[in-house]
Amino acid sequence: MSRKYQGLIVLNTKSLEGSVDDLVSAISKDFAAEGATVEKITQLGRREFAYNARHLASGHYVNYYFQGAPEVITKIQSRLSLNDHVHLQHFQRIA
Question: Which residues, at least 6 apart from 64, have a Cβ–Cβ distance to it below 8 Å?
C-alpha cells in the first residue's frame, strides 16, 4: 500500500563543498534508494533558528513530497541520520 508523505528536512550547509542544489538532489536519491517515489521538492531557503542548536544559527529548509509504503519512513530516517548535512528531519502523512 503506497501512501503520500511530506518530509521537512533542515540542512546544515555550514561546511558544504558544492551547491545546495547538489545536496538536495543527493537526498532525493536517498529517498529513491529506500523505495520512495519523490513527486515534488520545494526549497524554502535559509532561515534563522530561534536559538543556536548544535552550534548552528540557521539552516536550509527543504520539503520533499513523496509516496511509499509505511516502512519506508523508518528506512529513510535511519539513512538520513548518517548524513552529516542533515540537521533535522520531520515526516508526516498527507491525505
Answer: 6, 7, 8, 9, 27, 28, 31, 38, 40, 41
Q: CA separation (Å) from 47 to 10, 11, 43, 60?
A: 9, 10, 11, 6
- φ/ψ of residue 26, rounded to 5: -65, -40
Which CATH architecture fits 3-93?
2-Layer Sandwich (3.30)
Q: Kindly report the backbone phi and psi dihedral angles of residue 40, in degrees, each rounded to the nearest multiple of 5, phi listed first.
A: -155, 145
Closest Cα partner for 11 from 74, 84, 79, 75? 84
Write out pLDDT tens, residues 48-72: 999 987 789 999 999 999 999 999 9
Q: Could you tell me the residue ranges of all domains in the chain?
A: 3-93
Rounded Cα distance between 23 and 21, Å, is: 5
Q: What is the pTM of this model?
A: 0.92
Write out the three cell numbers for 69.
509504503
